[in-house]
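Input record, target 12 of the design panel.
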């Protein structure tokens, strides 16, 4: 019975995330029609050099291979020796789930599930996925903080400046105050309805309890990971370096796309704005960060860098298109069953099963 209620809570949370995406798409469509103009947006897309977009997509795919290598190194540091091909396949499978599958099972859970099925070190394998995500988010914040502090802080109209009437947090908040007010009203009404009936109060209480348990679980995972990976400081530093390299490569690729469609601002804006929106997209309030990442990126480029709205919208949609296209190999991996070890040789558990993708853990060089 408790498990059924837990499943209902997951579905409610999933529906809320889908509602955020649907609401954001509807609002964005209305805004583009009213303030940007479909023809202006179409003209902007028509001006894109297809080869530049292809190069950007290629850079992003190479970046995903680097992320797979990053995870592979974290696994090896804990004595979990899967093949690099297996890490790549599981990574792209997780990428597909993150960007295409509107379910409560995210890409990180997919990776954790399949890798723990093929090793006795289940805790270390699951923690490797958690640490991989934490390192990714931390490096993202480091890049954003570095470029903002060194290049952008103190310049008029940039993010936290208040003295420029065309930019800054206060000016942006004033411009979108009605949206914020309606959001507060809708959220308040939602919680009011929950508190007004017994089932709603029970669901709210269980949700809060679930968040407390999740917080305790994250703290426990963080502590365990710190203990485990403190013995592999060199590997963690190498992984961090790979992550920074990957993110700089990917953002540079989007910089060339942006230049091609009229987002003619310094690349330092890209390093700050893209990384900040990626962190916002990691908050699980929508599916794959959809509408959250795009909305934040559009606001940052238009309000704080003075970019034309149609160019900012085109850049944000190009990023989403690159993400979706780069995830398609994960669909092929899923359909072919290539993420399962020995799937080509025989069924799991059969005597004919070959460790084609997950190599012998006792052979580090395998």
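The sequence produced for target 12 reads:
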């Amino acid at each position: 019975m408790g498990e059924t209620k837990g499943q209902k809570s997951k579905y409610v949370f999933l529906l809320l995330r889908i509602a955020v995406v649907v609401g954001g798409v509807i609002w964005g469509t209305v805004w583009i029609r009213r303030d940007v103009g479909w023809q202006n947006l179409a003209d902007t897309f028509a001006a894109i050099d297809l080869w530049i977009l292809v190069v950007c997509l290629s850079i992003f795919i190479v970046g995903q291979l680097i992320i797979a290598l990053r995870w592979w190194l974290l696994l090896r540091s804990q004595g979990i020796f899967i093949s690099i091909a297996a890490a790549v396949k599981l990574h792209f499978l997780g990428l597909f789930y993150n960007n295409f599958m509107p379910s409560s099972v995210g890409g990180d859970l997919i990776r954790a599930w399949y890798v723990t099925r093929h090793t006795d070190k289940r805790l270390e394998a699951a923690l490797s996925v958690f640490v991989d995500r934490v390192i990714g988010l931390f490096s993202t914040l480091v890049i954003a903080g570095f470029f903002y502090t060194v290049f952008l802080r103190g310049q008029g109209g940039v993010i936290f400046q208040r003295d420029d009437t065309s930019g800054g947090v206060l000016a942006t908040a004033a411009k979108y105050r009605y949206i914020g007010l309606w959001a507060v009203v809708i959220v308040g009404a939602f919680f009011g309805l929950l508190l007004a009936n017994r089932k709603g109060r029970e669901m709210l209480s269980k949700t809060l309890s679930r968040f407390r348990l999740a917080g305790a679980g994250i703290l426990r995972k963080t502590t365990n990971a710190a203990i485990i990976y403190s013995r592999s400081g060199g590997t963690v530093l190498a992984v961090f370096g790979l992550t920074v390299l990957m993110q700089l490569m990917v953002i540079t690729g989007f910089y060339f796309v942006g230049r091609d469609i009229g987002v003619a601002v310094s690349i330092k804006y890209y390093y700050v704005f893209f990384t900040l929106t990626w962190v916002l997209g990691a908050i699980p309030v929508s599916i794959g960060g959809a509408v959250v990442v795009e909305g934040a990126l559009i606001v940052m480029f238009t309000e704080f860098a003075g970019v034309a709205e149609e160019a900012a919208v085109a850049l944000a949609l190009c990023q989403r298109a690159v993400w979706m296209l780069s995830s398609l190999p994960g669909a092929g991996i899923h359909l072919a069953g290539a993420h399962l070890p020995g799937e080509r040789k025989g069924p799991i558990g059969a005597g004919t099963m070959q460790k084609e993708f997950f190599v012998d853990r006792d052979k580090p060089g395998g």
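The chain has one domain: 10-167+232-336.
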